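Late entry, written up from scratch paper. The run itself happened at the end of the previous shift, but nothing got recorded in the book at the time, so transcribing now.
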Amino acid sequence: MKKLIVILIAAIGFSAVAQDSSKNLNVLAFNGLNMRSQPDSKARVVTKVAYGKQVEIIEKTDVNLQLGWIKDHWYKVRFRGREGYVFGGYLGGMPAPIAAEKTLLEDLLPLYCSSNLKVEDQAINATENTRNGDTLFYTLQAFSDGVELELEQQGNRKTSKLLLPLNVQQTYVLLESMLKSSGNSSVIEQLRFVQSKDGRLTRIRTASGAVSIKAMSESQTAMKISTFDDNQSAQR
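Output as recorded:
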């Protein structure tokens, strides 16, 4: 019996956690992901999977990798008939943002939703008079994949908030791809990262708070961008 246990453990090797082979995930790394022959960043490159392409998940290995603030497992995947391993930190179930030459930060979240997601139900619109005499305009729109977009405008300040069924790290990867694909990559350098004691990302924001990511619950995270009508970006 002991020999049988040893043989089973050896057979499992580094691919301890099997995944649904029919599951597809999107590449969110703007420069693409290298597919390697082994779950090792020094292993031979089999091919490169371009940004926005889908890979078929074969299995999730028990080999971890950390790139900057992103930590995840290597995944065995299939792409265009080839099999290999890619870093899972830049794979996601959400669609990759469409690359544009230049997009204002204030348009980033609404544009992502309108370009990639399906509208669910009718939008909720409301107005409210504030204490300082301004009028607050509010819109809530539900989209497919459990995504909600909240828009607020008060005076010359506009705020867009995307509620996503993701954790903070996954939301950051999506934000990074939005910023890089829209010509706003300089914002990434201004982000500050907060981790829990176990190393999980719990909050991300710029010093001004104009761009932020915050966990709302165990299953929902908010990505928020605030700008002004004078077209000055949130980098300011």
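The two ends are 66 Å apart (CA to CA).
(Scratch paper discarded after transcription.)
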